[in-house]
Write a structure and sequence with these properties.
The complex is a heterodimer of chains A (455) and B (161). Chain A has 455 residues and is α/β, with parallel strands linked by helices. Chain A is built from 17 helices and 13 strands. The chains are: A alpha/beta (455), B mainly alpha (161).
Amino acid sequence: MSRKELFHLLQAKLSRPGGTDDSALARTIRSMLSVDPSAKGAAALKRLCQDIARRRGIQEAFNLLNRLEVSFGFRKPALAIYDHTLHLIGGAQKYGCTIAHALQDDFEVTLISNKPVSHDDLKNWYQLDLSRCRITVIPIPFYEKQNKEFLDPAAITSRRTANPFHLISRQSGRYDFFINNSMVEMVYPLAGCSLFICHFPERKPSTYFYVDRYPHLIYNSRYTAGWIQKRWGLRPDIHLYPPVDMGGEVDFSAKEDIILSAARFDPGGNKQQLRMVRLFKQLAQSQPRLLHGWKLILVGGSPSDNPYLQKIRQTIAVDRLENVQLRVNIPAAELKGLYQKAKVFWHLCGLQQNEPELVEHFGMTTAEAMQNGCVPVVFAGGGLLEIVENGVSGLLFSSAGQLSQQTLDLINEPQRLRSMGESSCRRGQAFARTVFTARVKEIFSALLSDYRMDK
Amino acid sequence: MMENDDIKKTLQELKAFYDAEREKLSSIDQLVREPVDKEIIIDFWKLSNAEIEREMWNRLAGLDADADCFPGGPISSHRPLLGKPIVFLKKILRGLTRPYSSLLLQKQNRLNRELVTFQLLIFLKLRQLGKMIRETAERAADSPDGPPAGPENKKTTTGKT
């Protein structure tokens, strides 16, 4: 087909009501340039861009040019990962940084944050060398005025307040790929290819909700995917379990009689540590000989002023529970040491909860414990159902009574405890960082191939 | 024949042009040539407890922001010629009615403040009640009729423990 014919075909495509698919358009334009890369071809491209800008907006014309540059191999694709809490340590942030780490060789990766954060911070927090990624800090004036460390998107309750995240929306349009890893639904994606990572749909669609404008929606567990459909009416398309990297050599003979819990001391008590203390006390009282020498160790992060943690401390002190220990804000190495020593891992999050967000969306610490050969005895709900194979690599319970009974049975059968610990260790490897990285590369290789119009 | 370098140069020039054009436009609507915001209708009957609580809080924040019904900001007009006389007349009108309207608006403001505070107290009371119910339910669930069966209290076939 000649340049002239292709040009007319493109104009016809553009003028069609409803427009045409971006990929088809970009493909035809690339063909046009390849067929006739003369000055006339360049002039035709200019006219087409004008037409696209007039009909579909300047952003689309800009995106087309970006895509053509990558398609012709003139530069590496540019990818940005936005996280409004990148300056704070957290599981979701680790998820985004691990994606950046996996892609930094094939893409020009930029991490967009709203508060200052350094490469060293990220390296210390997640043991990831992100030196080939750029960090761009874009302060948001609305939140800067509040002078708070945490930018709370829920502060935007109505259209009375102009969307403060449009600054980020505009920035997203500079990249070939834009990943929103912040759970801020108020960022309108403008990049050539945009992905929204949903760790859990906590809010129903409300003011400035743009998740439906992202062509790709990544989910961290099937549980989350189910709620995305229910709450947002959207069908997520990319499944990516979080990276869990607490594994290492496990010496089962060195394990001690420890029941471990690792969860944040949530001020609202969602992780239910107080309940664990009560249940352990009941168990120890009803089975003193069997539970002799067993300890319950509760590990987790907490803010300095936490009434829930105070309540737990008080209960332990009043009831003189010498076999219950609290370890607050301990370093990762110490936590790993406890995982290696513990035989059983308890996780109650979700028990007797009506709200889906109060159930574990995935269960990072459960997978960490499993990688270290702890037998998980965890609530049968949420993402935990996807991690633990009931009766094989751990046990699932639906009531406090069942948890007590299953724990007693395990303690009473050391052989079963040992073999289940070994299965648990094997199962934990399914969520290792290497698995995550391979999956990320596979996903983005397919997306890039499509973007570059390789086939 | 244009070499790859020429295509590259053309693309770069066009990109620089459209990048500058992008910067000139202030709204996302203009960038994509369509309105990006749509009205979202919430079906209150389908909300969960946490969602209802969130909605209550949002509405309360809205009521609080609207409680003051005194006219805010200076009088202005966007009309090029008639603007100034319109503003002048409006100022006179506002000045003349101020003694009467202020009385009414002050009264309305007091009522609004009281109502917002009362709503806030109802909200807090509901929260406290919810917490009490949850704690009671948790305690009830954790206090089984008897301790779980273990080797130390499992009944034997002869009925002895």
